[in-house]
Amino acid sequence: MLDKEKIMILCKVVDNFGDIGVVYRLARSLSDARGGLELTLAVSNLESFQALCPKIDPGKAVQGFQYKDSRWKVVFWDEKLREDEIPSIILECFQCGRPDWLEETLFAPDFTRTVQIINIDYLTAEDYADEFHLLKSGTRKANIKKIFFMPGFTDKTGGLIFNETPLPAKKSSGSYDIFFFAYEDDPEAVVKGIKDFQKNMREQQEDFSVTVHVAAGKSSSPFLKCWQDSGSPFLIKKLPFMPQEEFDSFIQGMDFLFVRGEDSLARAALTGLPFVWQAYKQDENYQLVKVNALLERMADSFQKEDFEPIRSFWQNYNDYERKTESDDLTKMLTLCVQGKGVAGFADFAAKIRKNGNLAEHLLDFIDSLDF
């Protein structure tokens, strides 16, 4: 009989914060949805975990963690647990595989308990997310079962992870606030697009001012250099690295977002704020397939004429085989400050929320298991 109140979540940290960011977010959402869950988080990089959650001690291979009404156990990836400490529900995130000690235990001839492995896959707007959701996968033993659970943007997927987010501090008046978080690429078109946007707006509103809040990380240096080379045309604020809850609250206080990767994309989409997404660069420009799939999901939320500069800039910004131009960004920002683009992003967020919370869908699936 499965103990459905005990769940292990596996996270092998490939990049610094993306994987553990989603895993920490998922653990929070599961615990918010059902207080009293006993979660075990096996994480390969506790330093990255601590950056998002300062209460984590990277020097402890095994530690308890209290999150609201839920008690978590956080263990280092290679720290072997006793067989009776291994839950019957295991969430394997991003096809990360399993620690060697866990693999040996589960597939030992004398391990006869039934275990359900649920692969929480990468977020995509592509059609295969609908097709793969709840698709069963084989393992080497009949009692070790595996199934795919796909995040996504439709009601045929598991949806996105929702979190309770504190309200942001009151926004200062008189400034159009832009958050910038990107990969380490040439930001010349972004700087010029924002510069021209501010210049055009000042022709209508003399005191109009843009402030760009630059996220900590490798992308900040090229952005700041390009900004300086352009004559420091708008205000800049350099941000410190923020714990996850603080980050979630902060971006809700912005007017416009530049985000990258998976977790920040999901957060931006759920805010209802205008945003630009930069996908991770892939061979043969394949990231454009992912970008175009998301644009297709979004398109119905916008007036066609309002969506064209958005679509055009997103495609150009993510096409690593051609130079990014600034004109469509300037048009997009202007549309959004006029309120035209904002309505579309808000509508898209409402549709996503209507699909429901991935954590709740996941718990419903676990509740349905009977073997």
Please give a handful of descriptors for the protein shown:
18% strand; 371 residues; alpha/beta; 5-stranded parallel β-sheet; single chain; 13 helices
Give a structural overview.
The chain is an alpha/beta fold and 371 residues long. Helix 1 links the parallel strand 1 (6-11) and strand 2. It is 39% helix and 18% strand. It has an 8-stranded mixed β-sheet, covered by helices on one side. A 5-stranded parallel β-sheet has the order 11-10-9-12-13, sandwiched between helices. 41% of the residues are buried. It has helices at residues 18-33, 46-52, 100-106, 128-132, 188-202, 220-229, 244-252, 263-271, 287-299, 304-317, 327-337, 340-355, 358-368, and strands at 6-11, 38-43, 62-67, 70-76, 89-93, 115-120, 136-137, 144-149, 176-180, 210-214, 235-238, 256-260, 275-278. It has 13 helices and 13 strands. It is elongated, with a radius of gyration of 22 Å.
Helix and strand run: EHEHEEEHEHEEEHEHEHEHEHHHHH
Note the total helix count: 13
- The average pLDDT value, as a whole number, equals 94
Alpha carbon gyration radius: 22 Å
Quaternary organization: single chain
Poorly predicted runs are: none
